[in-house]
């Protein structure tokens, strides 16, 4: 851990900075192959996906354009409310474009399931998903995801964009939170 580990708030490091970087390079290589010769728009889902977007975009050789959506279903808690709100929509029309949604995590799947139907209705040429993390045991809806970095256990994680009550997003690694932090 480093100096941003916030004392005893973290239980353990789940995925190190080195492991994240190696995985993003691997994902970028297959994404490059998939979109060779095509115009690609990557859509980051704020705020959690900022780190993945920044690092994945730089790992890609394919020239991309970038846009952002902000949706929120978690508020300050550790459970998805299931109600997805648009806080910021895309700046661009995606009709006829190749779109790749970039996420930090698929937990219940509710956010992405909603996003896929919302963006899918705008008639993109193609619509795929790349997520750094996925919790298979937490899935409430089945989602087809083309690129997954790591399948992780059903524990609340923070770091590398992921927050608990807006904190810990700037950790360079992904860690699990000590239960005393969220009253567990
Ligand atoms: O699969 P789900 O159960 O829907 O959870 C995944 C979503 O929850 C988190 O976002 P959040 O709503 O906390 O907003 P944030 O990115 O600003 O933290 C995360 O970044 C994903 O977008
Ligand atoms: O495990 C998580 N940590 C942080 N944010 C999240 N949003 C969904 N799942 C998580
Ligand atoms: Mg969050």
Structural notes for this entry:
The protein is of the alpha/beta class and 184 residues long. The chain has a single domain (18-153), classed as Rossmann fold (3-Layer(aba) Sandwich), CATH 3.40.50. The protein has 3 helices and 9 strands; from the N terminus they run βαβαβββαββββ. The chain has helices spanning 17-34, 50-59, 110-120, and strands spanning 10-15, 40-46, 64-72, 85-88, 98-106, 126-134, 147-151, 157-158, 174-177. The protein has a 6-stranded mixed β-sheet, sandwiched between helices. Strand 5 (98-106), helix 3 and strand 6 (126-134) form a beta-alpha-beta unit. The chain is globular and about 50 Å long. The two termini are 23 Å apart. 1-O-pyrophosphono-5-O-phosphono-alpha-D-ribofuranose binds next to strand 2, strand 5 and helix 3.
């Amino acid at each position: 851990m480093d100096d941003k580990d916030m004392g005893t708030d973290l239980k353990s490091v789940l995925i190190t900075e080195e492991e994240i970087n190696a995985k993003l390079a691997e994902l970028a290589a297959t994404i490059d192959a998939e979109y060779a010769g095509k115009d690609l728009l990557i859509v980051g889902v704020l705020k959690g996906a900022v780190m993945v977007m920044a690092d994945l975009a730089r790992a890609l050789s394919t020239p991309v354009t970038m846009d952002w959506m902000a949706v929120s279903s978690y508020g300050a808690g550790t459970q998805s409310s299931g109600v997805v709100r648009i806080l910021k929509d895309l700046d661009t029309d995606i009709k006829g474009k190749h779109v790749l949604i970039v996420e930090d995590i698929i937990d219940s799947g509710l956010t992405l399931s909603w996003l896929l139907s919302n963006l899918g209705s705008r008639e993109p040429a193609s619509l795929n998903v790349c997520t750094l993390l996925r919790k298979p045991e937490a899935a409430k809806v089945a989602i087809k995801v083309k690129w997954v970095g790591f399948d992780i256990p059903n524990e609340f994680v923070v770091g590398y964009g992921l927050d608990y009550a807006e904190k810990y997003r700037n950790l360079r690694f992904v860690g699990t939170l000590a239960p005393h932090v969220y009253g567990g």
